[in-house]
Automatic annotation (TrEMBL), chain A:
<dbReference type="InterPro" id="IPR018206">
    <property type="entry name" value="ETF_asu_C_CS"/>
</dbReference>
<dbReference type="GO" id="GO:0009055">
    <property type="term" value="F:electron transfer activity"/>
</dbReference>
<feature type="domain" description="Electron transfer flavoprotein alpha/beta-subunit N-terminal">
    <location>
        <begin position="24"/>
        <end position="216"/>
    </location>
</feature>
<keyword id="KW-0813">Transport</keyword>
<feature type="binding site">
    <location>
        <position position="318"/>
    </location>
    <ligand>
        <name>FAD</name>
    </ligand>
</feature>
<dbReference type="InterPro" id="IPR014731">
    <property type="entry name" value="ETF_asu_C"/>
</dbReference>
<dbReference type="Pfam" id="PF00766">
    <property type="entry name" value="ETF_alpha"/>
</dbReference>
<dbReference type="InterPro" id="IPR033947">
    <property type="entry name" value="ETF_alpha_N"/>
</dbReference>
<dbReference type="InterPro" id="IPR014730">
    <property type="entry name" value="ETF_a/b_N"/>
</dbReference>
TrEMBL record, chain B:
<feature type="domain" description="Electron transfer flavoprotein alpha/beta-subunit N-terminal">
    <location>
        <begin position="22"/>
        <end position="218"/>
    </location>
</feature>
<dbReference type="GO" id="GO:0009055">
    <property type="term" value="F:electron transfer activity"/>
</dbReference>
<comment type="function">
    <text>May play a role in a redox process involved in nitrogen fixation.</text>
</comment>
<dbReference type="InterPro" id="IPR033948">
    <property type="entry name" value="ETF_beta_N"/>
</dbReference>
<comment type="similarity">
    <text>Belongs to the ETF beta-subunit/FixA family.</text>
</comment>
<protein>
    <recommendedName>
        <fullName>Protein FixA</fullName>
    </recommendedName>
</protein>
<keyword id="KW-0249">Electron transport</keyword>
<dbReference type="InterPro" id="IPR012255">
    <property type="entry name" value="ETF_b"/>
</dbReference>
<dbReference type="InterPro" id="IPR014729">
    <property type="entry name" value="Rossmann-like_a/b/a_fold"/>
</dbReference>
Length: 359, 283
């Protein structure tokens, strides 16, 4: 991204006592030993910001002590952290707002980072809103771009509002740390570098389970259910209202099966009961970044667009040559999705199996 | 039981248009609605009222015209409504907004202690999802966001069991009142108001509260009390080129499909390789 234009509006001077805040932090999100990829994406982004500021990258890893947690600390260094704050306590095994918020407030107040980044996930948004309040600082939500204002070294955080129709750049004036959440799959995944080294600082907070009001009774993992895993799919075949009726959803699932793809939908389809809401792509659904996004019978409304426009390659199929989706798709096919989807399924099937025989 | 539901009046984002020359939002004629996600929370509050009995107060901070949203909530079955309105609140970010709303909730609690605060998951204009957590933290309430289901509420023991969506699954949580809850969308259908509630809503005398009245400190609301500042607003850059149209020799679906696959493989050779490898592995 080019240098952001100078901040307009109020001038500010950072108070002297806030000038000691240094380093760019990422709160690494892990659930049951699985690190959320947005945290790794953020480490790559934090690395760029820290290099511009000439400071270090810190990763905070919280959880119950375990080999998994140690592996995640190693991952954090491989993906760009110089320092890992490894915060362990049995009470941190599952995410709960209160203990996580208490511990993070203390760790931030002790080590004083100037920027703190979290994923705009259910965990990240829940925790960020709480700690921004206890730290009495600014928090910019759901960012899609981060940069540093060269003249005053402050964070320029750009985010969509009004459902993506507008972007705005927000800065946090005379407060530290500057906090932001970032949507998954918006920042590129950095390469892991196994040669990188970093230091691990172990922190054992003073938590007592009996002081924590909220208890986790159960956890039902999606892996054991049958939830769509849209956020991590390489290929997504998505359907819109143009499919006409629920029976035609089969055409989308057929193509998806041949491609090993996930199926996505627009919101009207969820509302009509054609698909469950874990498949919805867009402002109020999932943000996706597959290598290939096939949009069949989708008009390209802004609320859908914001969820999928970062896809590497977008192929749109629509009967209307003037459909909005052709303004931002890479490849366009004017035609009837009800006929083209089965033709694609056949043709992909043939090409892939022919090559299989030849190879 | 006293339940407070925070609702925000927002412009209907589906109808927002951008001025082609000045790149500003054209608000004229854009209808103001209750933030859609707040309706899910209001519905849940009303369901608790039906089930265990409760007083439901709706609270909004906004300009005087936000009154219409409060009346709408009353017509759906809310018992009381508070409009927190004051020029001094203008320009509040989420830290200042949650502070102002908390001051009003504390004022309400002086009369009748508050057991549950409901907020929407997020708004459709600001979209931050930060106000609910801000309120919970300030009130010292247990914070329950992205709730898909309230499984159980036991008034005697003041215990509540909920299902919470997390990234990798569903957490079943048990906690105690008081708490702040945000509901995930699409979990229940929103009711139609009853006739007598409609009449009551029209006649209801709103409580209109100023900053002075709630005792919120002046330096902590409005622009002055907001750490974040919007320094630039702009329209997303349209992608330079439009889609490359795939034209097939013949107008048949098969010819179009073949041309589409050629175009995909040409644009994404690596993807083609991955697909072939996957097929070869028999997946
Ligand atoms: C607060 C809010 C949040 C929202 N969030 C989301 C969200 O997260 N995700 C989302 O998707 N939407 C969301 N929406 C809805 C969004 O505004 C649009 O209404 C929606 O994306 C349109 O869906 P669609 O493209 O499937 O349908 P339509 O707009 O009805 O488009 C159907 C398209 O199919 C084409 N077509 C018709 N027949 C055929 C055929 N046989 N073959 C090929 N093409 C055909 C038509 O030309 C048309 O372009 C939201 C709206 C609001 C107000
Ligand atoms: C372009 C733009 C970008 C902005 N970006 C940011 C940002 O990144 N960070 C930031 O701190 N502020 C930001 N703001 C300010 C923010 O919109 C306001 O603080 C707003 O009052 C609350 O935020 P929200 O709409 O995102 O609410 P959310 O936190 O998304 O709302 C969640 C719930 O809180 C309740 N609620 C929220 N506002 C009210 C209200 N006024 N009355 C009653 N209940 C309410 C509702 O139940 C709602 O569903 C931005 C404002 C603009 C104009």
């Amino acid at each position: 991204m080019s240098e952001p234009s100078k901040p307009q509006g109020r001038k500010f001077q950072l108070p002297e006592h806030l000038k000691i805040y240094k380093n760019v932090w990422v709160i690494v999100e892990q659930e049951r030993g699985i690190v959320h990829s947005v945290s790794l994406e953020l480490l790559g982004e934090a690395r760029k910001l820290a290099d511009k500021l000439g400071v270090e990258v810190g990763a905070v890893v919280l959880g119950a002590d375990s080999p998994d947690l140690n592996r995640i600390c190693g991952d954090a260094i491989g993906y760009g952290a110089d320092i890992v704050y490894k915060v362990t306590d049995p009470a941190l095994a599952d995410y709960r707002t209160d203990p996580y918020c208490r511990v993070m407030t203390e760790v931030v107040n002790t080590h004083k980072p100037e920027i703190v980044l979290l994923g705009a996930t259910t965990l990240g948004r829940d925790l960020a809103g709480a700690i921004a309040t206890t730290l009495a600082t600014g928090l910019t939500a759901d960012c899609t771009e981060l940069d540093i204002y060269a003249d005053n070294r402050s964070l320029a955080a750009t985010r969509p509002t009004f459902g993506g129709t507008l972007l705005c750049t927000i800065q946090t004036l005379a407060y530290r740390p500057q906090m932001a959440t970032v949507r998954p799959r918006v920042m590129a995944m950095p390469e892991r570098d196994d040669a990188r080294t970093g230091r691990v600082i172990e922190i054992q907070p003073d938590l007592r389970e009996e002081d924590i009001v909220t208890k986790v009774l159960n956890f039902i993992a999606d892996r054991e259910q049958n939830e769509a895993q849209l956020a991590f799919a390489d290929i997504i075949v998505s359907a819109g209202k143009g499919l006409g009726k629920v029976e035609n959803m089969k055409l989308v699932f057929d193509l998806a099966r041949v491609l090993g793809a996930e199926v996505g939908v627009t919101r009207p389809l969820v509302q009509a009961g054609w698909a469950t809401n874990d498949r919805q792509v867009g402002q109020t659904g999932k943000t996706v970044r597959p290598k290939l996004y096939i949009a069949a019978g989708i008009s390209g409304a802004i609320q859908h667009r914001v969820g999928m426009e970062k896809s590497d390659l977008i192929l749109a199929i629509n009967t209307d040559p003037n459909a909005t989706i052709f303004d931002f798709a890479h490849l366009g096919l004017v035609g009837d999705a009800l006929k083209i989807l089965p033709a694609l399924t056949d043709a992909f099937g043939r090409r892939l199996s022919i090559n299989r025989m030849a190879g | 039981m006293h339940i407070v539901v925070c609702i925000k009046q927002v412009p209907d984002s589906a109808q927002i248009r951008i001025h082609p020359v000045t790149n500003t939002i054209m608000r004229q004629g854009v209808p103001a609605i209750i933030n859609p996600f707040d309706l899910f929370s209001l519905e849940e509050a009303l369901r608790l009222k039906d089930k265990v009995g409760a007083r439901v107060t709706v609270l909004t901070m906004g300009p005087p015209m936000a009154e219409t949203s409060l009346r709408k909530a009353l017509s759906l079955g809310a018992d009381d409504a508070v409009l927190l309105t004051d020029r001094k609140f203008a320009g509040s970010d989420t830290l200042a907004t949650s502070y102002a709303l908390t001051s009003a909730i504390q004022k309400l609690a002086e009369e009748d202690p508050v057991d549950i605060v409901f907020c929407g998951k997020q708004t459709v204009d600001g979209d931050t999802a930060q106000v609910g957590p801000g309120i919970a933290t300030r009130l010292g309430f247990e914070q329950l966001t992205y709730i898909t289901k309230i499984e159980d509420l036991d008034i005697a023991s003041r215990e509540i069991v909920v299902q919470r969506r997390s990234e990798g699954g569903v957490q079943v949580l048990k906690t105690k009142l008081p708490c702040m809850i945000t509901m995930l969308e699409g979990t229940n259908t929103i009711r139609f108001g009853k006739m007598d509630d409609l009449f009551r809503a029209a006649r209801y005398e709103l409580k209109t509260w100023s900053r002075d009245f709630t005792g919120a400190e002046e330096g902590r609301v409005g622009l002055k009390g907001s750490p974040t500042v919007v320094s630039k607003v702009f329209v997303p850059k349209p992608r330079a080129e439009k889609a490359k149209m795939i034209v097939a020799d013949a107008d048949t679906p098969d010819a179009m499909a073949a041309a589409a696959i050629d175009a995909i493989f040409a644009a994404q050779p690596k993807l083609a390789g991955d697909l072939l490898a996957r097929a070869a592995a028999g997946l």
